[in-house]
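Need a sequence for this fold. Nothing fancy.
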């Protein structure tokens, strides 16, 4: 898959439109299995969330970070939290992924034989914050190019995302107002292309005030 990634980025734009379908299918199977496990960990039936993905909008993203001699001044991907349910990430042996822990950016040691699983914002909302999405970013390497491949598991456009009724109670009320996934995604995509200092929509915009 990593060799395919390099071949992919070396191709003309017209030839980049269709690639890696078999890989995406296998990663999707893994993502759905992990979703079942998360449901069970919350005391829910394994298939509790399956209905939200009947017309799923999941997608695969192949990232290429060229080397940059001014790596301390160049950011490959700015700090963010994944807006999906969960992300299955494969990366090569070139470091670059960092997660925020106790207010500091901590490098994730690269392991090309392992997959990284990121819990996304939708999982945070559905679980009423029993699971929380992690803030992360990607920095470039000064000498080596870096590749990563991410499968984002996201529900159907029409789905209303809100804390699951089984996980809320009088003692633990909903922490988020409902939002439509399709509208959220469209708004987020539009704001991603605005100026760097313009905040894009986040799930905390729907958080119920304490």
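Here you go.
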């Amino acid at each position: 898959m990593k060799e395919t990634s390099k071949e992919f980025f070396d191709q003309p734009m017209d030839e980049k439109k269709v690639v890696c379908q078999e890989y995406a299918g296998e990663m999707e199977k893994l993502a759905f299995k992990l979703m079942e496990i998360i449901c069970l960990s919350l005391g829910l039936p394994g298939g509790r969330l399956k209905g939200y993905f009947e017309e799923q909008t999941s997608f695969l993203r192949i990232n290429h970070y060229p080397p940059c001699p001014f790596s301390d001044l160049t950011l490959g991907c700015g700090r963010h939290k994944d807006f999906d349910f969960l992300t299955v990430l494969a990366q090569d042996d070139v470091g670059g992924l960092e997660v925020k822990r106790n207010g500091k950016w901590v490098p994730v040691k690269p392991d090309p034989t392992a997959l990284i699983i990121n819990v996304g914002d939708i999982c945070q909302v559905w679980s009423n914050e029993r699971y929380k999405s992690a803030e992360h970013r990607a920095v470039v390497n000064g000498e080596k190019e870096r590749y990563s491949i991410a499968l984002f598991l996201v529900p159907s456009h029409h789905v209303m995302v809100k804390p699951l009724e089984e996980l809320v109670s009088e003692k633990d009320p909903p922490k988020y107002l409902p939002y439509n996934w399709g509208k959220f995604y469209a708004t987020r995509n539009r704001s991603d292309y605005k100026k760097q200092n313009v905040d894009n929509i986040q799930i905390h915009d729907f958080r119920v005030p304490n």
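For context: The chain has one domain: 2-206.
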